[in-house]
Amino acid sequence: AQSVTQLDSQVPVFEEAPVELRCNYSSSVSVYLFWYVQYPNQGLQLLLKYLSGSTLVKGINGFEAEFNKSQTSFHLRKPSVHISDTAEYFCAVTRAARNTPLVFGKGTRLSVIA
Amino acid sequence: DAGITQSPRHKVTETGTPVTLRCHQTENHRYMYWYRQDPGHGLRLIHYSYGVKDTDKGEVSDGYSVSRSKTEDFLLTLESATSSQTSVYFCAISESGGGPYEQYFGPGTRLTVT
Hints:
The complex is a heterodimer of chains A (114) and B (114).
Chain A (H helix, E strand, L loop, with lengths): L2 E4 L3 E5 L4 E3 L1 E4 L4 E8 L5 E7 L5 E3 L5 E5 L4 E6 L8 E9 L7 E2 L3 E6 L1
Chain B lengths: L3 E4 L2 E4 L5 E7 L5 E8 L3 E10 L2 E4 L6 E7 L2 E6 L8 E8 L9 E2 L3 E5 L1
Parallel strand pairs in B: 2-11
Antiparallel strand pairs in B: 1-3, 3-8, 4-5, 4-9, 5-6, 7-8, 9-10, 9-11
């Protein structure tokens, strides 16, 4: 079975500063990895995904993530955050090449301070 | 945006009453999922469906049942609601037959059991 640990439950950061949201996963088989964002009172929206190939994945809104197999990590980064990035971010994993349900981390609440 | 609607969007009910939540999709996707979201727990899978009349349990299925008689509809039933089932419920869908298997989420249903 797969599992995900998001290492920070809350991350405060000043506007225009860089941010990294950390995600580690556990799996004995190959995986696909995802980051989702949830704005207040909304559903989840896909930010980016890693399936295979290049380990650096670019997503929407200027976010990117790097897959590191040796460290079993998939950290999300943005070089300069905006107030509008304030939201909850979820890392998720599923077994590669199988349509099995995603397993989600507990989420990281990003608060951007003006 | 994926064509997913959930009804009702908000519901308050009393302990011991039955409740049915509906998820409707217009994408003709094979897979449908029900999650609950609670503070500090992220999203946890309740049940999912991999086809009409084909369903399976998730991590937190006790006290819930599901039905899928048509591709487009996936119903979640709380047979006898309890206060511990107060939560936000999200439906999700995903494609089949080769991936990439990311899930698309509905807007959620906020359920309060008093």
